[in-house]
Amino acid sequence: MNIDAWVWWLIGAAGLGIGLVITAMPELGMLAAGAVAAAAVGALGGDAVLQVVVFAVVSVALIAVVRPIAARHRAQRPQFATGIDALKGRHALVLERVDGNGGRIKLAGEVWSARSLDAELAFEVGQEVDVVDIDGATAIVM
Q: Structure pTM?
């Protein structure tokens, strides 16, 4: 039984795709795309040298173009802070005296447990405080 070269390229692409899923290495996906391109050339009647050249050119081009774009996107910080990060640095209103042992504040429209960053400091009802951190369900204020 003689298997055409393009079938081998597809088998290689499938193997690279499985490797991509297992390892989460995007480069394997780019190599798989190169193998699919080489399979297309083989199916259209291109010789073995042309298939290898197409595989190499497509794979290298994808790696050279896609990797820097992906790296830039990965390095970018989110434009909007969400969750706990969105609460840090906000102002809050003291509802119950806040000291090193605890208290209550109104933060972003919700009532939060709070404690003072400095155990020596206490904040009285009606004062504005700044949230410096969130520890579980407790806002750390100063």
A: 0.54
